[in-house]
Design a protein that fits this description.
By secondary structure, this protein is an all-alpha fold. Helix content is 67%, strand content 0%.
Length: 93
């Protein structure tokens, strides 16, 4: 099974920039994810972490060989997850 995996430099820079920006946002301003220790939005955080992982994997130039890993860490999926997470933080944060 062939899973397309964009590899041009502008796409990799976009992935890395989005992943670093979101990681810094969560580290510097954790209230974007949790108002208190008992109010952690686990679903949102899981999606964001998955999207950021895909962004970092793609952004550093790593290309998975096996199709399940290509699908799991596909930059298109990562962009969608990071975009959704960013939208959710802006709207509800």
């Amino acid at each position: 099974m062939h899973v397309p995996y964009p590899h041009p430099l502008p796409a990799r820079l976009l992935s890395l920039t989005l992943a670093v920006t979101l990681a810094m946002l969560i580290l510097i301003y954790p209230r974007a994810i949790a108002v208190s220790i008992g109010d952690v939005r686990h679903g949102l955080l899981t999606l964001l972490m998955w999207g950021m992982a895909a962004g970092f994997v793609h952004g550093v130039g790593f290309v998975p060989r096996l199709w399940p890993w290509r699908l799991l860490f596909n930059p298109l999926l990562g962009w969608l997850l990071m975009g959704y997470g960013t939208w959710w933080i802006v709207v509800n944060g």
